[in-house]
Structure formats: structure tokens, C-alpha cells
Give the backbone structure.
Amino acid sequence: MSEEIFSTIRTIEGEAEDLINQARNKAREILEDAKRQSRTIHAEEFPADETDKQRERIVQEAQKKASELIEAARGATVRIKKQFDSNADEVVEIILKHIHGNA
């Protein structure tokens, strides 16, 4: 039973890390896309003020999307950590029972 709990904990930790990595990668992609769009817009013949405004809008949108993804990943991580913490208490009890010979 304790091996099953440890396996579950490892799985949960792996899922949390995957979520965070996915959020980071997606945020990086969004920011890179925003930079590409910004360069494209900047290369076109727009008045400087209009180009700067549009570039700033694109960058702000990308930063907002990236922040939302990161916050969603953090929320998922918090839920996973809570699940891990509840399982950790159970694991400690099992270990203590084994130490005291009550298993």
C-alpha cells in the first residue's frame, strides 16, 4: 500500500511539473509570436506612432495571455500539492506504524 501511495505521489509531482513546463512553453510561444507580429508590423509602412501603439497592444496581449497560462498552471500546482500533502500524512502514518511494528 505504501508503494502505491509513493507511486501516486511521484505521478502527481510529474503531472505538476509537466503542467508548469507546458505553461512556460506556451507563454514563450505567445511572446515569440507577439515579437514576430511586432516586427512584421514595424516593417510595414505605418506612421511611427501607430506602429508603436500596435506593437505595445500586441505585447500587452501576449503578456496577459502568458500570465493567465502561468496562473492557471500555478492553480493546478496548488491543487496537486494539496493532494500530495494529504497523501504525505498518510505515508508518514504508515511508516510510523511499520517502525513501531503495528503494520
